Amino acid sequence: MDTKQIYEKYPANDPSILIPILQEIQETEGYLSEEEMQKVAGFTRLPVSRVYGVATFYNQFRLQPLGEYVIRVCRGTACHVKGSLDVLTTLENELGIKAGETTKDLKFSLETVACIGACSIAPVISINDEYHGHLTVKKIQKLLASFRKKTKED
Amino acid sequence: MRITINDKECWANPGETILTLAEREGIKIPTLCYLKGLSPTGSCRICVVEVEGQRNLVPSCAFPVYEGMKIKTNSPKVRRARKTIIELLIANHPQDCLFCVRNGNCELQSLAAEYGVQSLRYQGERRVRKQDVASPSILRDPEKCILCGRCVRICHEVQNVGAIDIVERGFKSYITPAFNNSLNTIPCVFCGQCVVNCPVGALSEKSHEKIVWNAINDPKKHVVVQVAPAVRVALGEEFGMEPGTVVTGKIVSALRRIGFDTVFDTNFSADLTIMEEATELLGRLNNGGVLPMLTSCSPGWIKYIEHFYPDCLKNLSTCKSPHEMQGALIKSYYAEKKKINPADIFVVSIMPCTAKKYEAQRPELGEDYQDVDAVLTTRELARMIKNAGIDFNKLNDDYFDDPLGESTGAAVIFGSAGGVMEAALRTAHYTLTGREMDNIDFRPVRGLEGVKEAEININGTCLRIAAVNGLKNIDHFLDQIKDGNSSYHFIEVMACPGGCINGGGQPLPSDPEKTEKRMQAIYKIDRELPKRGSHQNESVQRLYKEFLGEPNSHKAHELLHTHYLRRDIE
């Protein structure tokens, strides 16, 4: 979907619409690109430095696109006790990125969450909408291998 | 309102802050993020005071007074809090004061001394950020930044440029252009108002000291220096003199001792600018040219209009700024006279300005060679004088060299906002009527207000004029031009608030009271000069006779005029 329709909904030259319009653009595009932030600056008549300042201030805004597969590592209490830190480190090492980042090929994004709500199968991660529990280092490697294969087949 | 401050009763005005009251009562409260005239943010907390009945200490810069208020500005609790704030700032600071450009003139350093910080009480993780050294005018070192936000507010609220802002949050916060770009690749106008408002060494000018020393030490180079009007009323401050002390003669002596071969006065070219610009204005008025004409001596302003109002470029006077005219003449007229190969001449401009460094390297300002090779700010000149072991205060007065050394009162007032307008009017009046203005002091355009307007009737021609300083103030006029309903004939624009006397290259920190005194000194020089109209400058007349022909001649256009570029905002 084009972002053009979004701009049509808002009044021009009005700095107070900055956050709502950024939210809506992110909803459509998945993230805030430099190009869109420049456009928003022109539309609201704010300096682009201010738009960038606001976009980096709030955690809700992403400045990079998300990967095809978003891996969320549960760092809740139960998972922590069951070794979720090892799970996270393993994923970080395997993917070569830190939590909050996306691989260069845009295949995987890695995030942490406070609790997924599946403590009975701790330690647990979700990959897009699928849950994977009782994880070990070996299981993670196998899991990643299968997803890597999947993306190649696509 | 009756208030008690440090057990002393006093009267306060409703709505004012504790800080302004304390200042009036002669009570010193330290500040870091506070900027006179702008909305307070209360972010640094160094100005906290104790107010009876308030649970916590309150920031005096943002806290309004109320009837019966009891304030303590220097209680043990207040002093302890301030000291802790300083210690925490230092904990996240490089602590390399010895190698810092602001050593000895740093607000954080002075506060640490005042509050007796003698050890590093906190140690921990420090913000690591790369320097931005790519721009021709301004260096940024985010590691030294204490996030007071003064630069950001000046850039957004006064200059309307918005080149930089605070990004991220908490410990990770830092100040940067959008997308971590360099100042060099964004619409920064290099006015340097951020530099003169920075309390520490996070922002500074790109130094040309080394290339100037190298040129001086090169026996093959003939090094010519020129000095802008606003420098002579400010440099003394760097040597402990009162703001507004006029040190023109001492500057000339110091420059000769440093080793410059020839010392010229940019004021000469300010007079020349007036001859060219007044002629251009009268030409536009008589031949239905584009009006209003906008002045073109402030390179920060030029970059601003190129980025943000490119449709108005045809309104700009085509005159180069005075030091560029001077540079062009040094490498042609003077070189010819002295029989020096222009390739061996190195032209140095001493300017109150950081944008002039950028201007000097604009490719269109020079033919075979750049008109100007290096630009030193007032601060850099002070450092060079100290480097050279010169006792500035003890110097005798000396005089500028001929033929580009003579100047009139009209030239020196270029240094203060409104001065170019006044100087142009003096000469336009003489050209149109054949006599001087009845009252040579044209007060309506003087003073530090951001916008000054007037109407003047010369020989039946009514001119509507405005003098604008501080870039935010010009938008209104440019919008009118864009919409085709501007009723002005001539508008002077200076990028910096107050004009060159408060330029980005002047002694720090920027302070309205110092600016006022520098302004008074400028008008004092003008008042005391025997000749006060640019058309009376005999060296300029000789230049036209011997070399240029007449104002706006073909040759004058080749050497003294320029063109402008449309620039992207992105």
Output the strand order for the largest sheet of chain A.
2-1-3-4
CATH topology of the largest domain in chain B: Rossmann fold
Helix-strand string of chain A: HHHHEHHEEEH
Oligomer state equals heterodimer
Count of beta strands of chain A: 4
Intertermini distance of chain A: 22 Å
In the CATH hierarchy, what is the class of the largest domain in chain B?
Alpha Beta
Give the averaged pLDDT of chain A, no decimals. 93
Tally of alpha and pi helices of chain B = 18
Number of helices of chain A: 7
**Computed CA radius of gyration of chain A, to the nearest angstrom:** 19 Å
Largest sheet of chain B: 5 strands, mixed
Instruction: List the strand order in the largest sheet of chain B.
Output: 2-1-5-3-4
pLDDT under 50 segments of chain A (min length 5)? none
Q: Which percent range describes the beta-strand content of chain A?
A: 5-15%
Quote the distance from N terminus to C terminus of chain B: 51 Å
What portion of residues of chain B belong to β-strands?
5-15%
> What is the CATH class name of the largest domain in chain A?
Alpha Beta
Task: Explain this structure.
The complex is a heterodimer of chains A (154) and B (570). With 154 residues, chain A is α+β, with helices and mostly antiparallel strands. Chain A has helices spanning 4-9, 18-29, 34-44, 48-57, 77-81, 84-95, 137-153, and strands at residues 69-74, 108-113, 125-127, 130-132. In chain A, strand 3 (125-127) and strand 4 form a beta hairpin. Chain A starts with a helix and ends with a helix. The mean pLDDT of chain A is 93. Chain B folds into three domains: 2-74, Ubiquitin-like (UB roll), CATH 3.10.20.740; 90-205, Alpha-Beta Plaits (2-Layer Sandwich), CATH 3.30.70; 210-560, Rossmann fold (3-Layer(aba) Sandwich), CATH 3.40.50. In chain B, 33% of the residues lie in helices and 13% in strands. Chain B is built from 18 helices and 17 strands. In chain B, helix 15 links the parallel strand 16 and strand 17 (490-494). The radius of gyration of chain B is 25 Å and the shape is globular. At the A-B interface, helix 3 and helix 4 of A face strand 7 of B.
